[in-house]
Amino acid sequence: MPRFEVESTLDHLCKPSLVQLQPNLFAAKFDLMKIVPARYIVEQALKSGELKPDGLVVESSSGTFALGLAQTCATLGLKLTLKTGWLEPIVEWRLRHLGAHIDTVTNDAGNLREIQEQRFALVQKTLDEVPGAFWTRQHDNPQHPAAYEPISHEIGKTLGKVDILVGTVGSGGSLCGFARPLREANPDLKVIAVDHNMSAIFGLTSEQVYPLCEENWLSMLGMGSDIIFPNVCHAACDEVHWVPIAQMINAVHELHRTTGLFVGPTSGAALSVANWCARNHPDSRVLAVFPDHGIRYMDTLFNPAWLNDNAAELRRTWAEPVLCQSPTEVAGEWARFPWGRRTYEEVFGYPPAHRERRTSEDTAA
Asked: Which residues are in the Tryptophan synthase beta chain-like PALP domain (predicted)?
């Protein structure tokens, strides 16, 4: 008979399932990964007194971190104000149902950096107007990556030595947080970052992508960004892969068909790369991080009508990633680049730049 452990609501929501997909491939599967740092940051602020019971939490987020904060604040009896860009209807309903107050920023020019700056200005305005309000600062708070380290330690104890870690990158916290303990246990750990081929996190790509990527990457994915946030630790990464959305979706569908596991496209990006690693390194133990559940994507990648509208592009397949000499070569195909544990400036010779794209939507940070 299985043994059950009674857990608090937040303990349950923050604990991933550890799933074996192949003899040498394992996945840490979350329903909502960013509730882990959301809870940790808020609870640390309560312990230190920086946030008072019944106090106000404020953040700039339109996606999974916002949901993690909303669930945390609802459980702990805290108030929450979010400064957001465009929201998917299901995400907006959940946030409001959990009691969050939402201020939405729009910009006719659609410049993502300007939208984010306006949202940060609204955060500061709230901090000035509400004494004792607490900003979680998910993008540069070192507690964000630190929140994942206990989970990574436990996974390492269960699996033993992990040889390859595969994780997607957005605001940067999770990959670094998972990598630190695993690399302490195995200095030869290979860390593979997975990005989207219109993201600027690992350099300005060509933007010569297929329509599915052009039209959906900001609205659909919890990965990639036009803005490189301070929590991105470039020097932790050995290799970077850029994965097209069609590849992510096909990987998610195949996973569901063969296992019944129901995950979102960001997990599909990690799965695509992890499958490739497990196949090419059969003697290595590979761990992939799956950050999202599939329920958020019922109107898109699990919607027969949407899939039929995109059938031609979804028939594209990539057996192998293209090896690039520079991230600037990344276009519409699945690509990879040997980053070599270097900083951004060591790779390019200059500090990170910020791409300005015309879009009315927001990264799912």
From this structure: 34-292
> Nearest CA to 73 among 97, 104, 105, 91?
97
Between CA 34 and CA 351 the distance in angstroms is 28
> Nearest 5°: CA angle at 271, between 143 and 65?
30
> Is residue 334 classed exposed, middle or buried when 0-12, 13-18 and 19+ CB atoms within 10 A define those classes?
buried
9-33+143-342: CATH topology: Rossmann fold (3.40.50)
Angstrom distance (rounded) from CA 172 to CA 168:
9
Residue 52: HSE in the Cβ half-sphere, 13 Å Cα cutoff: 6
Strand 286-290 relative to strand 164-168, pairing: parallel
Q: Encode pLDDT of 263-278 as tens digits.
A: 999 999 999 999 999 9
User: d(Cα 257, Cα 93) in Å, to the nearest integer?
Assistant: 29
CATH of range 35-135; options 3.20.20.70, 3.30.200.20, 3.40.1710.10, 3.40.50.1100: 3.40.50.1100
The domain ranges of the chain are 9-33+143-342, 35-135
Helix (H) or strand (E) holding 12: helix 9-14
Which of 127-136, 207-216, 337-346 is least confident?
A: 207-216
CA atoms of 347 and 328, how far apart (whole Å): 12
Q: Is residue 10 within 8 Å of 75, Cβ to Cβ? A: yes
